[in-house]
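for the recovery benchmark. tokens below, seq after
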């Protein structure tokens, strides 16, 4: 026996929306660094009082599109490798509380499996909120500097983790002397 059952839910989620003819919805996004906003900030009709982003978009908007919208206004998230963890905050009508459901993770500068997820495929409903945890990319290793610039060649305090390059005490620019009067040619400060 062969069955030809077609799922209506899947066909609605994959349906392409004509953005020229369909009116967009107002999407309220709440952003936090390194973590999601606490669920308590969403209770009793209140929302987090900081880092709100309002976007007019459609139900076929992908998580990648949302990442680029956030990246345009949030300076801290522009570095490649920054991770965006998306969650839907939705009211639970049976109890007087909000539910929190993670829907995907995208990374700036890298393709991922969640990039093409749409709001509709994540079961987003008008009136829900999007909460985003932004984890910045790791900073490059600052222990050693290879190349030009005003850093001392061959080490110095900066290469050992100090705040500034070691400064010489006196001498003409072409020939500097350190505090122990040893000749250090080629040392730039």
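predicted aa per position
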């Amino acid at each position: 026996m062969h069955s030809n059952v077609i799922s209506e839910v899947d066909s609605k989620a994959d349906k392409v929306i004509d953005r020229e003819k369909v009116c967009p919805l107002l999407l309220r996004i709440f952003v936090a660094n390194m973590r999601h906003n606490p669920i308590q900030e969403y209770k009793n009709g209140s929302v987090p009082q900081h880092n709100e982003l309002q976007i007019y978009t459609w139900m076929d908007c992908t998580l990648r599109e949302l990442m680029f919208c956030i990246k345009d206004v949030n300076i801290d998230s522009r570095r490649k490798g920054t991770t965006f963890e998306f969650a839907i905050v939705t009211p639970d009508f049976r109890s007087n509380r909000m539910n929190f459901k993670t829907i995907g993770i995208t990374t700036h500068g890298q393709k991922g499996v969640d990039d093409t997820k749409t709001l509709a495929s994540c079961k987003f409903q008008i009136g829900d909120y999007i909460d985003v945890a932004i984890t910045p990319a790791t900073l490059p290793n600052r222990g050693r500097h290879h190349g030009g610039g005003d850093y001392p060649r061959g080490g110095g305090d900066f290469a050992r983790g100090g705040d500034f390059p070691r400064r010489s005490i006196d001498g003409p620019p072409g020939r500097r002397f350190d505090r122990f009067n040893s000749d250090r040619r080629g040392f730039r400060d």
